[in-house]
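Working notes for the structural subgroup meeting. M.R. asked for a predicted model of this chain before we commit to crystallization trials. I am recording the input and output together here so anyone reviewing the notebook later can reproduce the run.

Input as submitted:
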Amino acid sequence: MRILTAQHSTAFAQFLKEEERSSATVEKYLRDVKHFIAFIGSNKISKQRVLDYKTALGNAYAPSSANSMLAALNAFLRFCGWQELCIKQFRVQRQIYRSEEKELTRAEYQRLVETASAQQNSRLSLILQTICGTGIRVSELRYITVEAAKHGEATVTCKGKKRRVFLVSKLRKKLLRYAKERKIASGSLFLTKRGVPISRHAVWREMKALCGRAKVHSKKVFPHNLRHLFACAFYRMEKDLAKLADILGHASINTTRLYVAETGIEHRQKMERLHLII
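Returned structure, recorded in token form:
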């Protein structure tokens, strides 16, 4: 039996920051640890209670989501020096195809951009185009600055690594015009009324508000799907998985492979073109 104190969570948060984890990662890990603490309903932790928690996650979440929460919990337990309490994740069969139901098409993306513009939300319209036109994460929008627009590239720092993100000429012109209209002389372009970089939650919320008018299903509309659309478009043109991994800032090429997996519809179409049925 191990005794959990408030100091454990506080120290874990500081540890994650010192490890240069992104703010989104820190937030998620702490949220998952808080979820575990709420489940056990006590400050006493045992291996059996951790196993009970795993069972509860398996009943309530998809395997990939449950594993993500278990990864955060295992990281916390190792930090506390309680390695013997760590548990294995659920075994998951690798998905060969992407789900068509959640796949954002180019036409749907265009409708989202046009709807944002029609609603005179120029900031959101440009955010959509910036993410989809560069493949950056929504948390990396703060690196899209006036200076980056002028130079045609941004330097993005994520998970302790830096990478260069190129801005195509058409996007540069739009960003600079936006900066001029908003009287932003330097620094991050996508700001709130208080002058701070817009949060991923705010972008997510504004995107969801477009669904009805744009006639795009809400489960397709979230910032990360724009990154997927960029990845698929780039891969179809270049067929270079390693280069795409560098552009997206992936540590593992296996992650990139998931981004460009075919949908079931695309695979069926290719099989039809084989003409092997006589």
